[in-house]
Amino acid sequence: MSPIKPIYASFRSIGAYAPEKILSNADLEKMVDTTDEWILKRTGIKERHIAAADEYTSDMAAKACELAIERSGIAKNKIDLVLCATVTPDYFNMPSTACIISDKIGIRNVQAFDISAACSGFVYLLSIAKAFIESGMKQNVLIVGAEKFSSIVDYTDRSTCILFGDGAGAAIISATSNKEEGFIDLHASADGSYADLLITPAPGAIHPASQHVIDTGLNFVQMKGNEIFKLAVKTLTNDVKEILAKNEINPEDIPHFIPHQANYRIIKAVGDALKMKDEQVVLTVGKYGNTSAASIPMAINDIWESGRLQTGELMLLDTFGGGLTWASALLPFAGQAINK
Ligand code: UT7
Q1: CA-closest residue to ligand 1 atom 16
Q2: Does residue 3 register a pLDDT over 90?
Q3: What is the pLDDT of residues 94-104, one digit of tens each?
Q4: Pick from 207, 192, 198: which is nearest to 262 by CA?
Q5: Fold of 8-181
């Protein structure tokens, strides 16, 4: 009997979408008591993209998915799992946004579901895709992080409305027998005792939709920004140090460190702690703001489209978000590079 060949999960393609409308710091100056200078200095954000009133999470996700599928060269009928990470689903209860996306892109009769892990959603999806593929259950998994964060932001609250933007990023994760193409390592974790640091209290079983919810703004995101900031720097730095040490990889050998794009100061602090050079660290927070589950795939798409991401190059992903959740991943880009 011949031995069973191991199967690995590989990152085959990337696609992303940012809505057309731009909300600049100058626009926000007219809406709340803030300044372009404060926002830039404290967050590094210059502008963010905002979806149109009739453009939903599934619409943005479908556009990103179409690109990722086309760039993978894999036929739609070979995709056997569709996963969406979002905290701004089209519908809060049902159906899942993954089901709606599948319908919009013409993939039917395959398993589809959503996960909720806030900003860590995309890396959580990578862990789920990996498990499905390496167990032999699925071959080609379409994953997408998508958010219409503007639908839960209170545009009179200066502590949150300056940060968030809308968008989507998708990838195809496929089975391979070539170990060189496979994910190297992935770590995902959570600590629910910090749940109140980043929360959208309603609608949900605790606060079902009601006039009270509307009157008190419980349907908007609430954040203890400063506490999250400190936890984020500590957790992200430790997480990255751990995954690199475990795999005996030096920070200087990482061509693309792609952290969650929440705040330039968080990214800089983590990059500095690892003694990374600026050119190793991918930065898109200035133009997209924090797009939650879409942030990392949108950043990967940026370096792919600019020709910076080459086949076989190592990516180090690192994220942190509501829950609290956090995750990191080390993996090569196993798709085709763009020739620039
Ligand atoms: O996606 C994952 C989860 N989210 C994050 O990772 C976000 C993490 N947190 C942050 O990025 C930062 O904490 C913020 C950008 C949200 C805030 O920056 P900060 O340096 O932590 O400011 P702070 O909350 O300590 O507030 C400092 C001051 C306060 O005024 P006083 O009390 O010192 O007079 C705030 O009222 O800045 C004030 N402030 C603002 N001023 C002008 C807060 N927001 C604004 C604003 N414009 N937009």
Answers
A1: 225
A2: no
A3: 999 999 999 99
A4: 198
A5: Peroxisomal Thiolase; Chain A, domain 1 (3.40.47)
Q: Mind listing the pLDDT tens digit for each residue in 159-175? A: 999 999 999 999 999 99
Q: Is 65 a catalytic residue?
A: no
Q: Is 109 a catalytic residue?
A: no
263 C-beta closer than 6 A to ligand 1: yes
Residue 207 annotated as catalytic? no
CATH class of domain segment(s) 185-332: alpha beta
What is d(CA 232, CA 161) in angstroms, rounded to the nearest whole number? 19
The CATH 3.40.47.10 portion of the chain extends over 8-181, 185-332
The rounded Å distance from CA 186 to ligand 1 centre is 31
Q: What is the pLDDT of residues 244-295, one digit of tens each?
A: 999 999 999 999 999 999 999 999 999 999 999 999 999 999 999 999 999 9
Ligand 1 center to 260 CA (angstroms): 18
Contacts of 66 by beta carbon, 8 Å cutoff, 6+ apart:
15, 105
Phi-psi region for residue 81, left (φ > 0), alpha (ψ -120 to 50) or beta? beta
